Amino acid sequence: MPEDYQEKFHKRLSVEEVEEGNTLSPKFDDNGLIPCVTTDSITHEVLMVGYMNAEALVKTIETGEAFYFSRSRQEVWHKGQTSGLTQKVKEIRIDDDQDSIWLSVDVGGSGASCHVGYKSCFYRSIPSEKQINLDLELKWEEQEKVFDPKKVYGDTPNPTKL
User: Within a 10 A sphere around the Cβ of 3, how many other Cβ atoms?
Assistant: First the structure.
């Protein structure tokens, strides 16, 4: 029988306890997920936004390394298990109503967190323009990849589903 990771957390009994108390009572959405913003512990740059289910959150807390829930694969994954680009957790925070997580992580020598090869998953920006049109071009904030995804992952298909 699989372990019930939800049982590891306190029940949400009152707004006061959730917002001002000392108990961890995360609020997972209807799909059992909670969003997680991950930043570099040194540069404070946003590296990625992912999701965790109760199992991923428990494993992250227990191991000190980041685990996420893949919505496309419908499974928990250990960040860096395939690529070796693990995220060592330096700090975990939860927001005021306990419905989102913030991880501050050390990404090690490579400095990469994006499966496409860049340091951050946010390697492009959207220009501010008065009127949106179909010709709007994204601005590249990172020019060079930290690693070659084909060398790390092989010819496996991109884990992102369109």
Answer: 10
Cβ of 103: how many Cβ atoms within 10 Å? 23
Q: What is the value of pTM for the model shown?
A: 0.81
Domains and CATH numbers, the chain: 31-116 (3.10.20.810)
- Per residue in 107-138, pLDDT tens? 877 677 888 888 899 888 888 776 666 666 66
Beta-carbon contacts of 136 under 8 Å, excluding residues fewer than 6 positions away, are: 126, 127, 129
Which amino acid does the sequence have at 64?
G
Q: Which residue would you say has higher pLDDT here, 55 or 2?
A: 55
- The label of the residue with tokens 């019930």 reads 4
